[in-house]
Amino acid sequence: MINLDDVVSLSRLQFGATAMFHFLFVPLTLGLSWILVIAESAYVMTGKVIYKDITRFWGKLFGINFVMGVTTGITLEFQFGTNWAYYSHYVGDIFGAPLAVEGLMAFFLESTLVGLFFFGWDRLSRGQHLMVTMLVALGSNLSALWILIANGWMQNPVGAEFNPMTMRMELTDVTAVLFNPVAQVKFVHTVAAGYVAASLFVMGISSWYLLRTMEVRFALRSFAIASGFGLAAILSVIVLGDESGYRTGEVQKVKLAAIEAEWETEPAPAAFTLFGWPDQSAETTHGAVKIPYLMGIIATRSLDEQVTGIKDLKAEHEVRIRSGMRAYGALEALRQDGGNGAARATFEQHRQDLGYGLLLTPHAKDIAKADEGAIARAVEDSVPQVAPLFWSFRLMVGIGVVLLGLFAAAFLQLCRGRLVQSPRLLKALFWCIPLPWVAIEAGWFVAEFGRQPWTISEVLPVSASVSLLQPGQIWFSLISISLIYTSLLVVELFLLRHVIRKGPASLQTGRYQGEVLQNGSAL
Q: 133 and 40 in contact (C-beta within 8 Å)?
């Protein structure tokens, strides 16, 4: 269990809480921006004012959410300096570049044009305003791209090399960083999940209007846009989730084994554990229900490749930790005498395992001379806690399956002209609005908690990344951030509720107020 008096654990808790809180706002921004583009494109092409009202109404909700997302996201970047100073020093040359580009190219593009979106309706032509809306959507998605390039590098650190003279990671191949396969898969999977969240948000609110037979034409057309967009998005999420599992199997074998509670290396193809109770102390899964072949196909795309189990991975880690001890000892010698040829040769031979040597940081004063007990503890630390990953992954997948059924049923009923005659479906859509957020948060937990004990996979462990702070300082900032962010969430929900309850009538057109449905199939 995590010791909450430990600086490392508190720093992890603070950053994790801040990041996951911030990501409550990101999905809606990503998805709503493109729904606005679709609605306004319909307005420009058809000239029907209802599509303009759809764009303006959902644009109000987008604006509220956008402001909250920006506010909660700023704190994250400051924490790299306040709580993770050595991490910033160690990998700043690589990690800092995507964040800088995100701020200069994507964030400013998005933020600047948001003002034009809201105040340019009467100052720009239809085509010009549509271009502004498209650029807002592009900016929001570019922000996600650069952030996920940075995060993907943390998962799969390519295109960089450790310099023993500067004691830092240095960029060697910018193309490899930009086109890192893990980053690309994470990007498309993440933005598609955001599209699902925004689509269900629009469909759920539209369902609320339809259940009350108010704002009917507006609600039906909003529903039609979101249901088609959302159905395509949920199918993309499922396909891209499979690709993400394959990439994880390639570069993060420990994470994959922990997600599946794969303790033993079984003959290929490995079975998928559908259900069970992981017991990390006994290294077994009680009451496991397995689906033959499925895990091998997901992780290796083959029927003849093995999925390495946790026990064998720990044995590999012990070998690499011992190698890392030699790399660390040679590095210390080089720092004292840069011309030491023997030390340089030893370091070059073992440099790929330096990160594993750093796993001994909390267990040994002198890493190069760590005893057997310290090595054994470092080996245990090299595997994340299995049960939280196991259940979070299944929660995410289970919700994905439920959402696929909801979107398919909603789209089918809409096409049949029977949507309004399906009150149970409309109620389900409304009450299921939070589900995509639950799945997204579970997915991020799997991605980040599954990378433990590493800040940068196999390069820099979390225990060696933190700033020299006192637990009391972190407790103060953690409590303060939690209180402020909770207040912001309450404000956002209040504002969203206020605008939704007023409905399109808040646009001061009055065209749809009090309208009662005459033909459920009329769009």
A: yes
- The two tokens of residue 377 are 């503890």
Taking only the tens place, the pLDDT of each residue in 142-181 is 888 988 999 999 999 999 999 888 888 999 999 999 999 9
Q: What is the CA radius of gyration of the chain?
A: 26
- For the whole model, what pTM was predicted? 0.90
Closest listed residue to residue 159, CA positions, set 456, 446, 359: 456
pLDDT tens column, 53-79: 999 999 999 999 998 888 888 888 888
Span 238-271, pLDDT tens digits: 888 777 776 777 788 899 889 988 888 888 787 8
Residue 274: name the closest of 388, 385, 391 by CA: 391
Which residue from 415, 424, 426 is spatially nearest to 523, judged by alpha carbons? 415
Answer yes or no: are the C-beta atoms of 309 and 299 closer than 8 Å: no
- Rounded Cα distance between 180 and 152, Å, is 7
CA distance linking residue 13 with residue 10, whole number of Å:
5
Q: By the 8 A CB rule, do 29 and 94 touch?
A: no
Contacts 24+ apart (CB under 8 A), 508-513: 509/49, 509/53, 511/49, 511/50, 511/53, 512/53, 512/214, 512/215, 512/216, 512/217, 512/218, 513/214, 513/215
| Orientation of helix 471-502 relative to helix 49-82, angle to 10° | 180
Contacts of 415 (CB under 8 A, 6+ apart): none
Q: What is residue 264's predicted lDDT score, i.e. its pLDDT?
A: 87
Give the confidence band of 5 by pLDDT, cuts at 50, 70, 90: low
Cα angle 298, 301, 302; round to 5 = 120
Distance in angstroms (rounded) separating the CA atoms of residues 169 and 459: 9
The number of residues in the chain equals: 523
CA dihedral in degrees (103, 104, 106, 107; nearest 10)?
Answer: 50
